[in-house]
Inverse folding.
């Protein structure tokens, strides 16, 4: 499975912010849209990533206040990225090794979407469920889940 497969299911809604916008306003957008990240774009180029992690770190640095600073002061200015062709196993490895919860998906210089740790976990579970169904269908007379103790 590739990143393109995840984005096909997820959709391509993107939320972006400019580096000179106020961090407080970006946090409002994240709260209103119930999203954990914003891609920071400047003149069509990816320049950073703002996640709830950076927002919380800024609040802690400012003694409990978000402050009046720009997104550029809080963002990760070297975010880990992937491509549409990156394999799911590679994305999992990258996210785990770098503690990244969100990866912008790039096609050369164009932003194609964002893949979250949730998206990856959901894709893995969905794939495993599909494989389980196929294996059970292959085995004749497999009992229903309801008849097996300890299963919902």
């Amino acid at each position: 499975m590739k990143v393109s497969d995840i984005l096909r299911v997820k959709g391509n809604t993107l939320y972006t912010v400019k580096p000179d916008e106020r961090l407080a306003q970006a946090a409002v957008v994240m709260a209103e849209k119930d999203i954990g990240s914003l891609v920071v774009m400047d003149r069509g180029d990816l320049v950073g990533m703002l996640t709830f992690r950076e927002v919380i770190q800024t609040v802690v640095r400012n003694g409990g206040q978000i402050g009046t600073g720009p997104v550029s002061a809080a963002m990760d200015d070297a975010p880990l990225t992937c491509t549409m062709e990156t394999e799911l196993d590679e994305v999992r490895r990258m996210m785990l090794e770098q503690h990244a919860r969100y990866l912008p998906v790039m096609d050369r210089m164009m932003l194609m979407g964002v893949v979250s740790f949730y998206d990856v976990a959901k894709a893995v579970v969905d794939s495993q469920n599909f494989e389980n169904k196929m294996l059970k269908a292959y085995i004749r007379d497999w009992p229903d889940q309801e008849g097996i103790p300890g299963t919902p």
